[in-house]
Protein: Potassium inwardly rectifying channel subfamily J member 11, like
Organism: Erpetoichthys calabaricus
Amino acid sequence: MLARKGLLPEEFLLTRLVEENCVQSRYRPKAQRARFITKNGSCNVAHKNIREQGRFLQDVFTTMVDLKWQHSLLIFTSAFLFSWMLFAMVWWLIAFGHGDLESPVVETSRMTPPCVTSIHSFTSAFLFSIEVQVC
């Protein structure tokens, strides 16, 4: 480090190879073992005789573990949004089929109670779906 800054001349520094050869260790050198996962996080295993096509969609758990965290977060969020939209559509269809979305006309002869209260549009059905599923 001092040589990089120019404080010591290069001829006074020993290289790492010379330093390692000078020091004799009393202990047996440790054998280098191959790692399954490298230190940067990549997989160091080679799959042989395994068909890789369609592997991701056969096992959902392994697929989610192997994906990047951004993709896992995207799938998790989109699953919630899809569920909320599906139930919002169901609630909206129930209100539409029962006639709750029509403008309130004051008729004394036909006073049916609304099937689902406080649903006036698809937006209110979506918010109702979120409220029902979260709480």
Notes: Residues 68-134 form a domain with the Helix Hairpins fold (CATH 1.10.287.70). Residues 69-98 form the longest helix (30 residues).
